[in-house]
Amino acid sequence: MCGVGTTAEGDNARWFVVTDGTPRTTVEVAIRSALTTQRDRLARLQVDIASDADWPADLRATVQLAERRLAANPRSDISLTLDPRDDEDFEIALSLAPFSIGCTGIGTGGKPIWDANDTGTSAAFALTAAEEHAVRTAITDAGGNPNDLVGLVEYHLGRRAHSYSVAGATTPATEQWHPPAGWRAYEHTVQLGSGDELWDAASAAVLSWGIKTRSGFAVDPPLEAGRPAHPRERFWLIARIGVIRVREPVEIVTTVSTGRRAALAYGTLTGHPVSGEEAFIVHRDDAGNVSLTLRSLTRAGQGVWRAAFPLILVAQRVYRRRYLRALLPGGR
After folding, report:
1. Which of 40, 28, 155 minimizes the C-alpha distance to 95?
2. Beta carbons of 236 and 248 less than 8 angstroms apart
3. At what angle do helices 24-37 and 87-96 cross, to 10 degrees?
4. Of 298, 306, 293, 290, which Cα lies nearest the Cα of 267?
5. Of 16, 36, 200, 243, which residue has the fewest beta carbons closer than 10 angstroms?
6. Got the DSSP string for 201-240?
7. Taking the complete model, does pTM exceed 0.90, yes or no?
8. Strand order in 244-257's β-sheet?
9. Which CA distances in Å does 321 have to 170, 318, 324?
10. Which residues fall within 8 angstroms of residue 310, CB to CB, at 6 or more apart?
């Protein structure tokens, strides 16, 4: 499957897949509508004129046309190169894509932006926001569920299990914390200042991964500007340590949003360097003084990460100092 992220054309396209168990009719609509909406961004198409099953009877004429075109090129095996700007070529791709063992669309920037493989059971598309909307609309109009089109990042995250057993144990809604036994428990509070303006900015930041992003992390998929994260949403937190990038899979456990308290707690998923939970809590007292509290529960991760746990604890201390400064006016 193709990579994740923006396409070479710089249009902020994101990769999407059709989720497991999607009805066959919806799969076909997704493949064809994605190809149609991406047509202007495609430079060429590669379609294998072979299928794991019998071609549908109503496509027999198109298959025969494609086979004649293939036979006319002695250097081709089963893959037919098509020009998406040519109507006949595009119709061949559009008709056969859901049933071929392999199709790829190469964008004008020279990289794949559309794939339909294994008789439609594996499909991925690099869609802009407008293209995503068009594909979801086509699925809905055909009577399907538009939520069967999911981001590739979310798809991979959705297949991961929780890697710890005390979800919610940082209790960010409570002032007093009683951490469970058997964990490395950490809690520290710093004062940020006072006033409604500071409160509004700090509480909005804490609910939208602001502490992480201001401390050097990237969040994938990124949140839309001004939108807070929600419980059960999953993300990759991407840390940069020198030239190394570490991708940490997490799930939002809980959020708190009141006039006196705003908080976000997240837990680790399988593949994270550690196991446990961390909470960022912004709170203010009767006098309007605003503070930030960090809480975390940590154990060694699984697999290759277990041996690196002592080094991870060092990095954790460095990042905690960044977290505690992240919401200070001027980053003091």
Report:
1. 28
2. yes
3. 160
4. 298
5. 243
6. HHHHHHHTTHHHHTTT-EEESPPPTTPPP-TT-EEEEEEE
7. no
8. 184-194, 289-300, 274-284, 261-268, 244-257, 234-241, 218-220
9. 19, 5, 5
10. none
